[in-house]
Amino acid sequence: MRAYRHVALVLIALLGAALIIFPLAAGLPKKTQAVDDLTNAFRPAFTPQAIEQSRTDLKTMNEMLEQLQAETLPGLAQQAGIPTPSLINLMGTTAPEVGKGLKEIPTIMPRFNKLAGTMDAQAGNFRQADDIPTADAPNTAVTYLYLIPGIVLLVVGAGGLLFSFVGSRAVVSTVCLALAAVVGLGMVVGTLATGVIGKTKASEKMFTAFRPTFTDAGYKQAHDDLDTLGKMAVGMKTKSIPSMAALLRKPVPQFTAELATQYPKVGKGLAETDRILAKFNALVENIGANIDTFDKADSIPNKDTEVSVMPWLLLGPGAAVFLLSGVALVIQFTGRGNGSTDPNAGAPRQPSGAAV
Which residues cross the membrane (predicted)? Predict the structure, then answer.
């Protein structure tokens, strides 16, 4: 009976040591700090209000560019009495940045639509990941969810084993086993109660979706696309519209007002382009500034293992500790009924007064 108690205490101590070594060896303190830095940086962009505004802004941009190409340019060409390709060539001559933008719009906008769509689709996963381990605790607390139980289990396992060998009674080792059972049960219940299994799965989906975005190549492409759109917008306002007004022999304010009235989506887009592009530019620059942070956060527990394994590295040891200590306690208490814990049990008794 005592042998099983010794084995249980040894295994509990080893599991405690493993729970201490794992987060430190995996670099969890730095990686979980990276998760907090990442969620703090992007939390404003993933609120329901921000996602809805981004959806509206992107719709404004898409509708403006679609109407510009499908209706506005052909209409202006007709007013000027020239073919549409000739008008576009003229705009490209007077404002090369506008010509470049018009040429690249068919490839630029799908990329921005994809980025905005990914953010929209992953907003719920982001908010779940942001709640690891709980809504009120930072992600850096995850490290201590391993360290603290690990230290307690190492102490009670090693301490119970020591007293089991040197002590004449099993009270201390019994208390240690009971404490281990409580800690193990707490690990299991805590893991299930906080919902981190579902949260880490959501986090895994989010990281998978954004990996192509948080790269040097992804950032550079988005940065260049915004630069093209920004220069095109400036060129439209400062060069193309004045040139078209001169071609049609109209004052610039009159031409601009007529343009906004006849083509309202273009008018609305031109009025809001600066704000919209500034907003997307801030998002893209935030991505560029957090590429290394994303990479660290995405490596929990390591590059080859998904983050969804993390709860099981608490749940498994917790269940093992609870079972080991529980079985040891059952054996110990049930064994006492037949006197098996008495080292002299079963020895023949000498008759009273018998000669030695």
Answer: 144-163, 175-197, 309-331
Q: What is the pLDDT of residues 35-46, one digit of tens each?
A: 999 999 999 999
The secondary structure of 252-287 as a DSSP string is HHHHHHHHHHHSHHHHHHHHHHHHHHHHHHHHHHHH
Please, are residues 203 and 125 in contact by the beta-carbon 8 Å criterion? yes
Task: For the beta carbon of residue 150, count every other beta carbon within 10 angstroms.
Answer: 23
Q: Write down the pLDDT at residue 166.
A: 72
Structural tokens at position 15 = 């599991």
- Calculate ∠ Cα 114-210-26, nearest 5°: 175
Number of folded domains that form the chain: 1
Say whether pLDDT at 1 is over 70: no
Instruction: State the greatest distance between any 2 C-alpha atoms of the chain, in Å, as a whole number.
Output: 137
For 220, the domain range is 2-338
* Structural domain contains residue 269: yes
CA–CA distance, 227 with 121 (Å, rounded to integer): 26
Q: Are 38 and 297 in contact (CB under 8 A)?
A: yes
Q: Is the pLDDT of residue 345 over 50?
A: no
Percentage above 90 pLDDT, the chain: 82
**Residue 249: partners with Cβ closer than 8 Å, 6 or more residues away:** none
Distance of CA 298 to the CA centre of its chain: 8
Question: What is the DSSP-derived secondary structure letter of residue 347?
Answer: P
pLDDT tens-digit readout, 79-107? 999 999 998 898 888 999 999 999 999 99
CB 45 within 8 A of CB 283: yes
pLDDT value, residue 334: 83
Least-confidence region, from 86-100, 200-214, 279-293 = 86-100
In a domain, 347, yes or no: no
Eight-class DSSP state of 302: B
- Quick check: is 293 in a domain? yes
- Sign of the Cα torsion 4, 9, 15, 18 reads negative
**Does 198 have pLDDT greater than 60?**
yes
